[in-house]
Amino acid sequence: MNSENRKGYEIYALGDSAITIEFGKNINPEINDHVIARFKQFQENPIQGVIDLIPSYHSLTLCYNLNDVAKQKMGLASLIDQVRLRLEEPILVRHDSFKLHEIPVNYGGKNGSDLLRVSQEKGIDLYEIIRLHSEPTYRVYMLGFIPGFAYLGELNKALTMPRKSTPQPMVPGSVGIAGLQTGIYPSFSPGGWNIIGHTEYPLLENGMPILQAGDRVKFIPLNQL
Amino acid sequence: MSLIIHKVGILDTIQHFGVRGLQSKGIRPGGVMDQFSASIANALVGNKLNEDLLEIHFPACEIMFTKPCLISIVGADFTAKLNEKYLPMNRPILVPTNSKLQFVSPKSGKIVYVAVQGGLLGQGRLIKNSEIELKKKPKLTTTSLYIFPWSADVEWRKYSPEIHVIQGREWERLQEESQRKFCCKPFKISHHADRMGYRLQHESFQTRSKEEIISTAVNFGTIQLLPNGQTIVLMADHQTTGGYPRIAHVISADLPKLVQKSPGDEVIFHLTDQETAEKEWVAQQKHIQQIHTISQLKLYEFFEKNTH
Fold this sequence. Notes:
The complex is a heterodimer.
Chain A: E1 2-4, E2 10-13, E3 18-22, H1 29-44, E4 50-55, E5 59-64, H2 66-71, H3 76-88, E6 91-93, E7 100-107, H4 115-122, H5 126-134, E8 138-143, E9 150-153, E10 168-170, E11 174-178, E12 181-185, E13 189-191, E14 194-198, E15 204-205, E16 208-209, E17 216-221
Parallel strand pairs in A: 7-17
Antiparallel strand pairs in A: 1-6, 2-3, 3-5, 4-5, 7-14, 8-9, 8-17, 10-13, 11-12, 11-14, 15-16
Chain B: E1 3-7, E2 13-15, H1 35-44, E3 53-56, E4 62-65, E5 69-77, E6 80-82, E7 85-86, E8 93-95, E9 99-103, E10 108-116, E11 124-125, E12 131-132, E13 146-147, E14 162-167, H2 176-184, E15 186-193, E16 197-201, E17 216-217, E18 222-225, E19 231-234, E20 241-242, E21 246-250, H3 255-259, E22 266-271, H4 274-307
Parallel strand pairs in B: 14-22
Antiparallel strand pairs in B: 1-4, 1-12, 2-3, 2-11, 3-10, 4-9, 5-8, 5-10, 6-7, 6-9, 8-13, 14-21, 15-16, 15-22, 16-19, 17-20, 18-19, 18-21
Helix pairs in contact in B: 1-4
């Protein structure tokens, strides 16, 4: 845990009703820690007129009510001034406090049908893939795509696979990999990731996602290794 | 119950005005596509402006009113008929018990809103033979159809192809020639146009860089550049984040106009700035607000006169 004041950010407009604060140019845990710390800051102490917050890998988007902003003398410039002031405030960026989810996974089989193909294309033994995938403690960088879909990173470089060219129907609990990312489909949807396993772990509770940006995920293989 | 869905349409819903505060969990706001028409529809029947109402595409549903209701029809013109009699748009209408509302042929626009005084209970897709209750049951007694003698001015949303946009974060990725084409050439709306997004038809745009973008937030009205050089405008049911270049964003005040375009209709994009976008929005909201105020007054007078 340390107290930091990150000066390196950029603010740009996302249309006329949202602005995005970009804290860096790449995917890395430190930048993401800043995003999440600032997300919590704006969540706990909301700015008048801001109606939604969208944290991502390296940026935080503030959606605002255009009425409220347009009514101010300087319009959007007034809101941006307020945001800049907030970003001047030092915040606690915690690198050591997070919620850990241990998620049991059945690798391969009917609901992990791409495991074999990944093994063949990568020339890596099935069990080695399971070991490499379940070894790290992953960070939930962000949620997006569909309710509760968590982008987890980073995957071991040895397992890097391209997305499928045509999306396929996914069942809830499908554990997939694409690029340096891994993730779990929380509900029925089309998807292009390579599915290597399946979990019964509930990812939605009354429609609300369990995982949150900043949480950690550890996969526990149920297969006999 | 007050309404029965006799026949279902292709995409008809009881629609809200967007759920806010959940995008950090990947939950999109959703809500009505054409906020202008939906707000006017609510204003005309004296509802709060963001009351839940019917959003109807063509082919449309068929609705049976089993109680007298005060309704309004605003947005696309699908030729509304009540028990075989043509209904005007943009007006309050008193419908008696056992009235069947149908939409027989699409003339202009893509989505029509039907507001019912008191607001509709329940949300989501309409189901055949489902019964819909009103949140607040107005005390209406009428035995015949009554069309009110006033109407709302919806000229605001003229069906011109001009749509104003603000440059997006990745605007500079477009090559100069593509930027020029984007700004003045007419594009057609493709057949891939639904509540998630409208795809546009044009020559492929060329980019300066193919560098991948890190997934980040998108917005209602964001114009994304797809890997094949084509573009899509994100609509009300867009995902919360995306990884395609965001070349521009349609200004909020012009979204209703764009939403009402059907496949084959033309759009022409014009670049504008935040200040203009704010002014246009404020003027549009003022117009809606005025209709709301006048409506409430007129409805009050009307019902006072007719109950004493």
